[in-house]
Amino acid sequence: MSESVETRGDDRIELAVRDANNDGKPDLWVVDTDGDGQADLFQFDTDGDGEVDITIVDRTQDGMPDEVIDGDGGLPPR
């Protein structure tokens, strides 16, 4: 786990979970944290180990990252 990141809310509603490299493990998570149906948290497994390596937060939901951090940002996938 890495440093905690602030999101729009405390929920974790996974809008999309994908296996982009067809290894049978998820490596992309698109998450809504405030229940408005729009993504504001994006997480990526870049090395194929099934763990989040990069977390991007878009608190303003304008398509521009407000914060990019290494690790899961204290918000591991369920």
Automatic annotation (TrEMBL):
One of its GO terms (molecular function) is calcium ion binding. It comes from the Bacteria. This is Uncharacterized protein. It comes from Planosporangium flavigriseum.
